[in-house]
Here is the input.
Amino acid sequence: MPLTKIAEFDVKKLEILSPEGKADEKLMPRLSKKDIAEMYRLMVLSRAFDEKAIALQRQGRLGTYVPQLGQEASIIGPAYALSKKDWLVPSFRETGAMIAHGCSVEMMMRYWAGDERGSLMPKGARVLPVAIPVSTQLPHAAGIAWGMKKLKERSAVMAYFGDGGTSPGDFHEAMNLAGVFRLPVVFVCQNNHYAISLPVERQTASKTIAQKAIGYGIQGVQVDGNDIFAAYSAAKKALEDAKNGIPTLIECLTYRMGDHTTSDDSKRYRDEKEVKEWAKKDPVARLEKYMADRKMLNAALKEKIIKKCRAIIEKAVGDVESSPPDAEDIFRYTYAEMDESLKEQAEGFRRRV
Amino acid sequence: MPRMAMVEALNLALKQEMKKDKRVLLLGEDVGKDGGVFRASDGLLKKFGAERVIDTPVSESGIVGASIGLAIAGFKPVAEIQFSGFLPPAFDQLLTHAARMRNRSRGRYAVPMVVRCPYGGGVRALEHHSESFEAAYAHIPGLKVVIPSRPYDAKGLLASAIRGPDPVLFMEPKKVYRSVKEEVPEKEYLIPLGKANIVRHGSDVTVIAWGAMVKTALEAAEQSQYDIEVIDLRTIKPFDKKAILESAGKTGRVIVLHEAVKTGGWGAEIAASIAESGIRLKAPVKRVASPDVIVPLLKSEDFFFPNAKTVLSAAEEMMRK
Here is the structure.
């Protein structure tokens, strides 16, 4: 009996925009100047949101916040590729993606301030609420994608998670279902190199996360996650493929520049030198260089954009803080209708308040 | 009127609900070609096709998690978990998402999903096939937990669960699957969730039970020298407090009977509700339940589960006080 090679696989990496801001024109996705400007604005907005949210958290005006710093390209890029009919299933570090797909800055601020109404999606925005338990949202993405397929809608689902998210079982189950039933779903892994304190090497012995796709019979690709064009381009193609029954796992190779959350201190577990190295690959700075080279951006315009973003955020904070939730709201959505026992408890609560 | 076993009644309910509402889907392990290991979905693949009766990989969390997604996408999934002993991998999805999606989305998304699973002992099965962990699920706000005791109820309750707007865990007592036959109307009918059924009227002692234990309670009532009232709870969460308190007020003596282990069982919740109500009882509430140990394998099964005798002696002890 011979020993024969029965299969061979390769894993590809897509890079378009270099850290110096030079783009590979052959690989450049079709994007208008307006699109690029909007992607840039969303990245700046995310960064400004982070700044404000962290400051508010330090003042006790916001709950625990999950910063996006350093990952803006891999957060905004894939989400920007979604059409209005597509679904976004976020994890918890995708405030910018949620805004890109129809959530308002005000509702995102409301959510992080601990007001549940921040998770009430605007009508028509196909976005699921933030999912905290790692990877538990991935089977939902598979399920929604299944639904879209059954309804014969040409819509796909994009689900986000981190490198740590590839370890729990739900990652496996969702990828497996996607492969077996050829579901229109795109899995976007933010490989930011750390799951809180643990480096990615302690999550998986796999050389890349992209190659995990092979085991599920779906497509896998790695992209430079600090390159918004690569992240967008891979997602755009993956969404199209998804609608034709080919799911994709996209690994965005990026780096979390900030702490895991406002409750974390990343100095405890990682080297400052490593952080400095990654700072050179900043996703916002490289897009700025690209835009400046093409006269799409200058110092004055940049200042104007930042100011505008900050104003939107300030207004959102004002709106959130001036409209606290009414206490009875906690009873309204447990079931479609309250049962007798819950009614009794709500009544008792009313008397107490 | 045809006589049916519980499995047949469930099959009929599934068939009727799928016919009535195209959004109803069935998914689970071996539910298609095999018709389910207990044959609850027998014939449904042929009738409704593979788009609506879906054989899934062995993937409990995936089945329930994807059902949540399907529900958000506008479907009404009925997921079968082959045995309740295999439900824990999906516990996370039930607790973390199914039960709270309506709340965390402020009503934008709901999960009108039914998770069916056979549960309970008395069928001489393998390890992990005999447990009753209904209380663990009933503890979760946002979930409903339904347990039929007989074919007639199984059909009406399952139809209500499928048509309802909230996620329901529908636990089916394996012991009753085929052991009892009764007349079940072929026409559609609904039994509302949250309503108990007084299956035997009596004036001395109230026995509250669900699932396979209803039959045990009735056996005890038949053998007893006392006049025993038997309440079939039918829905564990939300449960029919009104029916329980009325009966407790009438008899003044209450036994809660369940095959689940005693500590933290749903009997504790019922006993606490009776205590909180301030109703004057003639004797303290008694729980007749399984001991707080791991369900033994079949050779020792009979030592573990409550039976008519244990109910009888509890009732007699109460009457002596």
Notes: The CA atoms of residues 103 and 121 of chain A lie 7 Å apart.
